[in-house]
Each structure stands twice: as C-alpha cells, then as structure tokens.
Design the sequence.
C-alpha cells in the first residue's frame, strides 16, 4: 500500500523554519510557455510603438542617436523586462499575471532582486538550442517542482497564484442537523463537507455508492446513509461549537490550500 | 481498478494543475513510456522509411498520422501505473497489435484531426465505449478542461516541429569538419533552390529529427490528456471523497474492533459487541464495483477482446493488416534494381516536368496578351477572394470555438465581487439599521447626555455611508486603522480629512474614555460630508 509520501502530487509540501508545512501549487511548463508568449507579444508591441515614435523623432535629432536609443531599449527589454517585474511587488511579468502565475522562492516567500536577475539571465541557457527553450523544457519536465535551469540556480518556483474556482453544488439541505457520533480528523471532516458541497455533481446512485463507503459513520446504507451524512455535514458546517467547544470538535480549516 | 491502490494524490484540481499531474505521471515512467511508444511505432516507421526512402515528406506525414498508436501504448502504461500495477511485458506485447486495429477507421481516419484526441483516447481505450455512448461520454468528459486540452495539443504539435528543427540545427553543427562535403553541398543546393525545395539528404535528416521530437512531445501530450481525464472523473465521480470515506471507515473499523475486543473482555454479554464487527464486514466488502461503470475499463475491454479472439474476428483483421503494407512491397520486391534504375532515369523527366509547370504561366501571359487584361484581373481577384475566404473561414472557426481556446487563467481572473460588509468591528453597518438623518440623531443623543451612543452612532454611520456609496471596500475584519487607511487610499471622494478627525475622536472615546468637548461633536455633526435625506 502506498503511503502519502510516495504518492505523486502537484502540490508540493514545504516545511518552513517555523515548523509549519505549506503546500505550493507549482505550475507546469505549458501555461508558463503561454505566459512567455504573451510577454513576447507585449515586448514586441512596446518596441514597435517605441520605434515608430523614435522614427518620427529621428527626423529631428538624427538617425544615429535614435538608432542607439532603440538598441538600448531593445537590450533593456530583452534582459531586464522580466527582472524588473518579477522582483517587484507582484512577483510576475504581465504575461504571468494575466495567466495567474507568480514567481516565488522555494519556501513560498517573494523573490529577491538577485534571484530575479539570476533566474532571468540564465534564460539564455534555458533557451538553447537556437532559442527553442529545449533545455528549459527538458529541465522543467524532469524536475519535481517544474523548475527550469534558471529556477534551479536561483532557488525559485513558479506557482499558480489564484486558488481554483471550486463549484459548490449542494443538494437540498438535510431536514435536521445530526451531531457527529465520533471525532473526525481535519481531512475526514473536509471530506464530509465536500461530500455535501459537491453532492449535486453526482447522480443519486453514485452518491449512495460514495456514502456507503462511510457506512460505519452514518450507520446506514443507501439513500438513508446519504441523508444522514448530509445531516452530519450540516451540523459540522452550521451548528458545531467552534474550537474546543465539544470534546471532539476540532477546528475545520476552511480553505484547504492557500499558497 | 482499485481506488485505494492509487499512486497519485487524487483531488479536484484546476485544469492546468490536472495537466501538470499528467506531466508528472509521465515523468515518473518516462523511459518506459518512451520505449512503449516506440514499440508501437518503431517497426512500422522502419518499414515506411524504407518504402518512402525517396520521399521523406510523405513518410513524415504518415508518421504523424499514425501517432495515436504510440499514444495508446503510453496510455496503457500510465493508466495501469496510476492504480498501482506495472503492466507486465506479456500484456504489452499482447496490446501491440491492438493499438493499431482498435477502431482503426474511426481513430486513424475520421477523428484523427480532433484536438480533443488526448482525452478522447482515454475514453475510448480505458472505458471501451463505442458509438453514441462514446460520443456522449467524450462530451461529458470534455466539458471540464477542454480549453486546456486544446492549448496543450497545439503547444505539443508546435513544439514538436520546433524541437525537431532545433535538433536538426544541432546535428548540422556537429557534423565533423572535413567529412561534411555532402552535407555542405546539400546545404548550398538548398540555399540556391529556395526554402521549400529541400534536397533529399537534408529532408531525410529533418524527418529523422522530427520523428524523435514528435515522439517526445506525444508522450507528454498523452500524459497531459490522461491527467485531465482523471481530474474530470475525480470531479464528476467524487473519487477523492470516496477514498477519504474509505480511509475513515478503515479507521473507525479499527477503533470499533478495539472497543469490541475490550467490551468482549470486560462484559459477559458478547452478543452486543459482535454487531459492530458485522457492520465492519459490510463496510469492508462494499467496493467501487466495475458493474456500476466506475471503471469498466480493463475488465470489460479485456473480456471483449478475448471474446473477439475466440470468435475469430481478430485473426481476420490481423491478416488484412499484414497484407496491407508488405503486399505492396512484395510487388516491387522482384524487379527492385531495374525499377530503381528506371526511377532514377525518371528523375530527368521530372526536370521536364518543371518546365511544364512553368508553361501555364507563359500560357497565362499569352492569354493576357490575346484575351486582354480583364481575364487576368478577374483571375487575380478570384485568387485573392479565395485567400480571403480561407482567412475568414479560419477566423470564423476560431470565433465559433473560442471557448476551446480560452486559457484557464482568464476565467480564473474574474475576481468575485467583494460583498459589502454588514458588520464592522462588531457594529451593524447596514443602512437599514441607521436613522435617516444621522447627524441630527447624533446631536439629539449628545444633548440628551448619551455621549457614548452618540459617538458610536456617528462613527458607525460614517462607515456605513462609506460602504454604501461604494467608494471604500471596508471588510468585516478591519480595525479603525484599516478603515482609515482604506479611506485615505480612496482619497477625496471618501473625505479622508473628516474621517481621520472622526476616527481620532472615536478612538479617544472608545478606548481611553475621553469625552470630547461639545464644540467638537457639534462641528463633526455640522461638517457631516455625506448626502443625507434631510427632512425625510
């Protein structure tokens, strides 16, 4: 049988210095490639506009000066566009922000300027061979945290910033709330609550099938088991004394995985 | 399928996280997946390469066309491994011909271009559905995450080509100097003949690079599709909840067992204690059951295939497939040298053919001289019209299926509208709870000697008005300092000057018990900046 540690997961647990374990929602290469493409569009757009404006200006101040300024702009865009945005408050280039991504340290804290520089200057290596990002892709797909070489060197990861939208489709509420007969762990309570919140996604037969798995808790099977479980979930959600009220009541973490 | 033996964490994920899970699944078994992919396509690729030795373009097209056979092998590996078993080689060998025959007409011809292929393949292979059932199921499964699957598909196809070219570039850099005469000659030829007229040697190398890149991209693409498929089923069938419930029951059964044991030891009435054990057995036996269609996957398809084998349909198709490629080759096998020589000779005729290609142009010129410029103009217009139609068609296609192209991030981007706080710092701030004329009421209370109530009403009223006018997003958990900060952020329309004075007075009263002078309160009432329905 597998223990939890062997199981493959997209959430990566990180233990902080305080002994707290957080789970990072590390983002994979495909959406990141999309963000890169968006950034590329933005950069090209800015440079085009700049060169048009400077072209007009060039009539007045001379072509050589304008050419130099353009080269400088191109250089800065190429090397410092991602650095500036990623070292900033939001930790993401505009493309990443649009797609809901963010660069953080492996510990989940915001990255420093040094890390942003390292991670983005190594883009050159990741882009090999011939700017195809072959190295970056290979590194990304072969490491557990989806890190390209720049990420590995700077100790950073890219994460999904926004929590996914979890549709809540509860069935009709139970007639009466039913106290839990035994104490449940946080994971178990969460499963009970999400049974209530997602019950309407499943057809009735499937609902009963799932409820039957917890027959020992509900003490009934079939439709009766479903309604008893829903009643218990109602009790957990609405009526349970918060934090230490009953002997077995434990605090339910409402939000499962933040960053 | 044994859900409790699952080797990846099942939880409802967002679409892109599901894609990532698929990629992680492939990473775990990467070499095995790649070998299995090539097991399906290696030999056919060799044969086809030999057959189309002189036209690598066709070879490449055919190879691309046949990719789903490799995807199916990868899918076999990933799906088995997800549920904790490593498919033995015996199973893999048996599967090899099936990846070609299984619904050959549908998969390789009708539905080959479908961008939902990575997910549809899982429905087809793992659930063994056909016909209408299959179509309905694919629609159901694709409802979640179809944007992600289309983008992943496009990315994979694009990067296959891209990496193929990169590989070609690397190889041409690594050709040792001094032995690259042929290579350089071919490159020069290419440079002279134009970008689309690639010399044979180069085209062969490009084809070789491309198929390597295609295999790599396809392995991961299949994994991503499988990840999305698993995620959809986790959502619509509640796999994660079921697993959690099962673990819960296991734990409770243990607890009950211990309880029962102690009860049996301590009490003479053992009959009561046996009952929970009975319940335990019942709960333990309840399984996810293939009969419900949760995973009619392997059991069913295996039995169907074995049925096919026993009815003898399988060998028939088998023969037909065997007769397909090699039969043509045997036709050519006899007169091989002659035919090849003839073909080489025939190449000169192709040169003539090129001249022929130019002929229509000169004909057109002749016509334009004789028939006039009008015909040419009409032809040009028709040509451009055709181009326009093609572009319009593509744009229309993109627009019609724009939901498929929506990147998941955009949808997540929609922030939930902040709900106006109803209670701030324990005070009810709904407009209904307040008098119509706040400053008037406050001054009335103040004069009546209810100092605390008066100031509380004033502060509460100010916050309520700030929320009501929609200028300041005050949250339930905000403190006085937070409110002030938010007001200052919003600026002039929220009257930060007035509010900071009010906050100072309110804090001094509420926390230090300092009652302000009458004049201060009066001025606060007089300067009340919010529009009131006075006289109402």
Sequence:
């Amino acid at each position: 049988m597998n223990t939890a540690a062997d199981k493959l997961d997209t959430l990566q647990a990180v233990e902080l210095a305080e002994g707290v374990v957080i789970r990072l929602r590390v983002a994979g290469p495909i959406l990141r490639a999309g963000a890169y493409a968006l950034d590329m569009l933005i950069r090209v757009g800015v440079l085009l506009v700049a060169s048009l404006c400077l072209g007009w200006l060039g009539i007045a101040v001379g072509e050589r000066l304008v050419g130099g300024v353009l080269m400088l702009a191109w250089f800065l865009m190429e090397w410092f566009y991602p650095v500036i945005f990623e070292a900033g408050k939001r930790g993401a280039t505009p493309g990443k922000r649009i797609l809901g991504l963010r660069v953080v340290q492996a510990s989940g804290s915001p990255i420093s300027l040094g890390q942003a520089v390292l991670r983005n200057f190594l883009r050159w290596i990741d882009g090999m061979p011939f700017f195809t990002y072959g190295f970056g892709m290979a590194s990304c797909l072969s490491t557990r945290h989806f890190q390209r070489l720049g990420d590995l060197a700077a100790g950073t990861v890219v994460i999904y910033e926004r929590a996914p939208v979890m549709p809540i489709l509860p069935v009709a509420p139970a007639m009466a709330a039913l106290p839990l007969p035994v104490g449940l762990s946080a994971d178990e309570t969460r499963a009970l609550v999400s049974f209530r919140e997602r019950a309407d996604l499943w057809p009735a037969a499937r609902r009963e099938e799932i409820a039957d798995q917890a027959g020992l808790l509900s003490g009934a099977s079939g439709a009766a088991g479903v309604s008893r479980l829903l009643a218990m979930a109602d009790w957990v959600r609405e009526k349970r004394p918060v934090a230490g009220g009953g002997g077995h009541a434990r605090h339910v973490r409402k939000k499962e995985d933040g960053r | 399928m044994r859900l409790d033996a699952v080797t990846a964490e099942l939880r409802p994920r967002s679409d892109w996280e599901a894609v990532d899970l698929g990629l992680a699944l492939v990473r775990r078994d990467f070499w095995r997946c790649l070998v299995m992919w090539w097991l399906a396509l290696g030999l056919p690729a060799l044969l086809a390469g030999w057959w189309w030795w002189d036209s690598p373009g066709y070879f490449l097209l055919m190879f691309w066309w046949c990719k789903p056979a490799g995807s199916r092998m990868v899918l076999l590996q990933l799906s088995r491994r997800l549920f904790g078993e490593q498919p033995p080689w015996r199973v893999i060998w048996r599967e090899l011909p099936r990846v070609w025959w299984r619904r050959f007409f549908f998969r390789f011809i009708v539905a080959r271009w479908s961008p939902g292929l990575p997910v549809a393949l899982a429905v087809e292979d793992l659930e063994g559905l056909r016909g209408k059932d299959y179509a309905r199921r694919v629609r159901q499964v694709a409802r979640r995450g179809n944007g992600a699957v289309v983008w992943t598909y496009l990315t994979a196809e694009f990067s296959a080509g891209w990496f193929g070219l990169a590989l070609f570039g690397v190889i041409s850099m690594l050709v040792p100097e001094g032995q690259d005469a042929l290579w350089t000659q071919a490159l020069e030829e290419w440079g002279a003949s134009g970008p689309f007229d690639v010399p044979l040697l180069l085209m062969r190398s490009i084809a070789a690079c491309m198929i390597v890149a295609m295999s790599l991209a396809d392995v991961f693409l299949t994994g991503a599709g499988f990840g999305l498929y698993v995620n959809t089923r986790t959502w619509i069938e509640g796999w994660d909840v079921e697993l959690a419930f099962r673990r819960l029951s296991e734990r409770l059964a243990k607890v009950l067992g211990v309880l029962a044991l102690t009860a049996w030891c301590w009490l003479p009435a053992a009959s009561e204690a046996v009952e929970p054990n009975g319940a335990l057995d019942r709960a333990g036996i309840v399984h996810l059951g293939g009969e419900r269609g949760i995973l009619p996957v392997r059991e069913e398809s295996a039995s169907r295939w074995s049925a096919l084998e026993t009815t003898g349909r399988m060998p028939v198709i088998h023969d037909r497939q065997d007769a397909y490629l090699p039969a043509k080759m045997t036709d050519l096998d006899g007169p091989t040298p002659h035919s090849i020589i003839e073909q080489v000779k025939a190449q000169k005729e192709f040169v003539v053919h090129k001249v022929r290609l130019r002929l229509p142009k000169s004909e057109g010129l002749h016509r334009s001289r004789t028939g006039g410029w009008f015909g040419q103009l009409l032809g040009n217009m028709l040509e451009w019209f055709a181009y326009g139609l093609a572009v319009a068609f593509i744009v229309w296609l993109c627009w019609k299926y724009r939901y498929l192209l929506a990147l998941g991030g955009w949808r997540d981007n929609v922030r939930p509208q902040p709900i106006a706080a109803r209670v701030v710092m324990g005070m009810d701030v709904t407009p209904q709870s307040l008098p119509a004329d706040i400053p008037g009421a406050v001054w009335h209370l103040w004069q009546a000697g209810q100092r605390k109530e008066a100031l509380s009403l004033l502060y509460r009223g100010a916050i309520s008005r700030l929320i009501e006018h929609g200028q300041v997003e005050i949250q339930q958990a905000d403190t006085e300092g937070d409110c002030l900060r938010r007001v200052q952020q919003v600026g002039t329309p929220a009257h930060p000057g007035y509010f900071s004075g009010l906050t100072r007075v309110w804090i001094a009263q509420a926390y230090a018990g300092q009652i302000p002078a009458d004049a201060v309160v009066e001025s606060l009432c007089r300067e009340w900046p919010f529009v009131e329905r006075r006289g109402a």
In short: The two ends of chain A are 29 Å apart (CA to CA). Residues 167-246 of chain A form one domain. Confidence is low (pLDDT under 50) at residues 244-259 of chain A. The first strand of chain A starts at residue 11 and ends at 15.
